[in-house]
Amino acid sequence: MQTGVVMEETKPVPRVGLVLFVLKGTSVLLGRGRHCSIGDSTFAPPGGHLEFGESFEECGVRELKEETGLEMGKADYLTATNNLFLEEPKPAHYVTIFLRAVLADPDQVPQNREPNKCDGWDWYDWDKLPQPLFWPLEKMVRSGFNPFPSQSHQLDSC
Q1: Which residue of 14, 37, 43, 153 pairs with 93 in a disulfide if CB–CB is 3.0 to 4.6 A?
Q2: Are 43 and 132 in contact (CB under 8 A)?
Q3: Rounded Cα distance, 80 and 125, in Å
Q4: What is the pLDDT of residue 149?
């Protein structure tokens, strides 16, 4: 170590995640058995990290295509959450943006484009969600959150 150089400890910083509630009828798209350090072996919607310079919608389009091969149609901002994952093997802090989206073509079929991260994708009725859910999603569901638009604010193709 050089004389006079002070090594500063690197502190973890919050990251920005984006999650898509892709809707089809009364169902939502969820990945089965996620394989990652946060939320391992849970059901979760598609999503990922916001990259530098991306809009929320651009991130959603990119992540949905990368993970499922699906083309996103219209999307709306829903909410944001502040999540601390202190019990994980590698603790993390995420500010997560949630979007509601529909597919550009409702007849598209999801593909598992990242089999090392997920066991596959399927549509699940919102009132009969599989278990275990990724804990931020579980917390939202238990609080009464519903990603479906009200009658006065319908998305096209929903």
Answers
A1: 14
A2: yes
A3: 23
A4: 92
What the block records as the tokens of 52 is 């530098």
Q: What share of the chain in percent tops pLDDT 70?
A: 87
pLDDT of 157? 45
Least Cα distance to 32 among 19, 45, 22 occurs for 45
φ and ψ of 64, to 5 deg: -60, -45
Q: Are 60 and 91 in contact (CB under 8 A)?
A: no
For residues 138 and 145, give the distance between their C-alpha atoms in angstroms, rounded to a whole number. 10
**Residues 110 and 68: beta-carbon distance below 8 Å:** yes
Residue corresponding to tokens 């990119």:
62
pTM of the model: 0.86
